Automatic annotation (TrEMBL):
<dbReference type="Pfam" id="PF03171">
    <property type="entry name" value="2OG-FeII_Oxy"/>
</dbReference>
<dbReference type="InterPro" id="IPR027443">
    <property type="entry name" value="IPNS-like_sf"/>
</dbReference>
<protein>
    <recommendedName>
        <fullName>Fe2OG dioxygenase domain-containing protein</fullName>
    </recommendedName>
</protein>
<dbReference type="InterPro" id="IPR044861">
    <property type="entry name" value="IPNS-like_FE2OG_OXY"/>
</dbReference>
<dbReference type="GO" id="GO:0046872">
    <property type="term" value="F:metal ion binding"/>
</dbReference>
<feature type="domain" description="Fe2OG dioxygenase">
    <location>
        <begin position="55"/>
        <end position="154"/>
    </location>
</feature>
<keyword id="KW-0408">Iron</keyword>
<dbReference type="InterPro" id="IPR050295">
    <property type="entry name" value="Plant_2OG-oxidoreductases"/>
</dbReference>
<keyword id="KW-0479">Metal-binding</keyword>
<dbReference type="InterPro" id="IPR005123">
    <property type="entry name" value="Oxoglu/Fe-dep_dioxygenase_dom"/>
</dbReference>
Length: 168
């Protein structure tokens, strides 16, 4: 077996794992949207129905190598995600994610068997500002780290406030 064919085999295995992970995280997103609908005083399926009209799921894997001087560099500038939900799996050991809270950066250290859920711009728009998009960044670390993000949102990116939440 050549190196190339072995590499293809590894990608094929990864594809199946990613397909299953996408399915499970999609189910989690549906449950979160149901709870968030309740929190907005809407029917349980209101947000979920909006995403069924135009769904998009994308995965992004990221490897950050060790950085000898992390205080001198920034991994990923502060930003908000344009999608609805970002479900993030972080490798254990090295922290890199920070969120802005009350004007200060707070480190979100990785926990075993845990996901980080960031809300994005589409959810802020759909909720008419009742839910806020998370400002976050990634910082470099002396240790290597890996993260996997699953982005869930509207495929065409067009979001309007849900009718029941539109301020008159």
């Amino acid at each position: 077996m050549s190196v190339e064919s072995g590499f293809k085999f590894e990608l094929h295995c990864c594809r199946e794992v990613m397909r299953e992970l996408s399915k499970e995280l999609g189910g989690l997103a549906d449950r979160l949207l149901s709870l968030m609908s309740q929190g907005l005083g809407l029917k349980n399926d209101r947000l979920k129905r909006r995403f069924e009209e135009d769904p998009s799921r994308k995965a992004h894997a990221n490897y950050c190598p060790p950085c000898p001087a992390p205080e001198l560099t920034l991994g990923l500038r502060p930003h908000k995600d344009p999608i609805a939900l970002n479900m993030l799996i972080q490798s254990l050991g090295a922290s890199g994610l920070q969120v802005m809270k009350d004007g200060e950066w707070i480190a979100i250290d990785p926990l075993p068997n845990a996901l980080v859920i960031n809300l994005g711009d589409q959810l802020q728009i759909l909720s008419n500002g009742r839910y806020k998009s998370t400002v976050h960044r990634a910082v470099n670390n002396k240790d290597a780290r890996v993260s996997l993000a699953m982005f869930y949102g509207l495929l065409n990116g067009v979001a309007d406030p849900i009718e029941e939440l539109a301020d008159v």
